[in-house]
Amino acid sequence: MTYRTLYGPTLGGKQIWVTECGAWTPDNKNVSAFDLNLRGVLAFATHLVQYVPHPYSQRERFSLLSAERNDAAVLEKARSFRRLSLTYAQRGRPIPWKFTDDVAGSGPVFVNALDMGSWWKVVLVNYSRDPQKISINVELPQSGSFKADRHGDGARVAKGTRSVVLNASPESLFQEVLQPGEAVEYLIHP
What we know:
about 190 residues; alpha+beta; 2 domains; 6-stranded antiparallel beta sheet; 3-stranded mixed beta sheet
């Protein structure tokens, strides 16, 4: 996974690349240290790279997957990486949105809607220790019916991904009940 951070600085016009993002932690131990390391990287890096294809092993401890089980389970640090990258490493033109009911502000949640050029993106992240209901209206750049991919939590990418159809006039409703630490991303194809 490679993300270009939105506010990352440069040194004399040169971009700063950081790999592995301080991800050397065994399995789910010291996830808070990984989280702090990643936040530090996000504070100064222009680009951050985290390798996910190979599973965790005794030799390569910077993977976000575990090889202790055959299904290469997603580690909590993978969820942390996803949460923070969806919060801080997105760029695009903002799309207007608003909460639809009184649940706004009931917990620390992050909402971002962006026009990325060739697609639109809506990101919902729960930073609370409790489940959070999020209900927002997003004013998409066009009216119509659009295919979208919804990416959420899952032990494997396929488990957390599903296709949806959104109807916009141009406003479209997004409703989710996010579990603690959960992040959901909609990629909308205009």
